[in-house]
Amino acid sequence: MRLYGALLRISIQDALQNRIESAIWFLYEIVPPIMMAAVWLAAYQEQESVAGYSLGEMLAYTVGVMVLRTVVTAYPEYGIDYQIRDGSLSNLLTRPLNLWAYWFVDTLGWKTFRNLLTVPVVIACLLWLGPQLASIRVPPERLPVLGVSLVLAMVLCFIAKLCLACTSFWTNDIVGAAILYDVISAALGGLLIPIALLPEWLQTVARLLPIQAIYTVPLTILLGKDDGANPWLGVLLQLGWIVVLWGLARVLWRAGLRQYESVGR
């Protein structure tokens, strides 16, 4: 544990030293939700509800997306892709540490700095949207399940990105696959709009994807949009996807390492 604690401190220092890169990722994460908040304020001028969401609920959803993008979303795939392509993964493989844990801790370090940047932005949004959000109440009994769901969403996102990163063993560049993942996350994962706003057939597709367990499940728990179902069922769904993707990641990792070693990197 001391080793990973030291790695966490080093990652935070790296994020502080690379402030420009951190700021770019920070803007990438917070600007879309802010723009969507402005869109919803305009869209609700002529109607009181959209797909069962009041203006306050939709704005709370949008602020929640902002928080999830900074707290939950990870981007380890780019660093892993670089390490695979330039051969530096070989050095990491010889070290006495769990590589997946190393990448997870590194991700936490970078996100710690960006989360600090997010706090004043969220406060500003709450002041801006305060009158519309005043009607939103989160029952105290939902807070524990919401906290558990956020932690599981972070783990699930990391494992999903790990699966994505493993494709680098067979490709020359991960950018295309990463962009496709981001597009699917925005359109079908609930990052851009709630899944309830999609056509019914797309809603069915979206609910079959693990991405909705990363973003839609915590937001559904937050707003109580689970149609009376026990919110812990969403947590069980997240756990199920973690098990599935963990197994997939292990298969891809082992096959990828064989490919990596076969080309003599």
How would you describe the overall organization of this protein?
- It is a single chain.
- A hairpin with a 2-residue loop joins strand 1 and strand 2 (53-54).
- 75% of the residues lie in helices and 2% in strands.
- A two-stranded antiparallel sheet has the order 1-2.
- It has one domain.
- The chain is built from 11 helices and 2 strands.
- The protein is globular.
- It has helices at residues 2-17, 19-43, 55-71, 76-86, 89-93, 99-133, 142-166, 175-188, 200-207, 211-223, 232-262, and strands spanning 49-50, 53-54.
The number of helical runs is 11
Protein structure class: mainly alpha
Mean pLDDT: 88
Radius of gyration: 19 Å
**From N to C, what is the helix and strand string?**
HHEEHHHHHHHHH
Total E-strand runs: 2
Distance between the termini: 30 Å
What would the keywords be for this entry?
265 residues, mainly alpha, 11 helices, 75% helix
Gist of the model:
This protein has 265 residues and is mainly α. The chain has helices at 2-17, 19-43, 55-71, 76-86, 89-93, 99-133, 142-166, 175-188, 200-207, 211-223, 232-262; strands at 49-50, 53-54.
What's the structural blueprint in terms of helices and strands?
Blueprint: H1 2-17, H2 19-43, E1 49-50, E2 53-54, H3 55-71, H4 76-86, H5 89-93, H6 99-133, H7 142-166, H8 175-188, H9 200-207, H10 211-223, H11 232-262
Antiparallel strand pairs: 1-2
Helix pairs in contact: 1-6, 2-3, 2-6, 3-6, 3-10, 4-7, 7-10, 7-11, 10-11
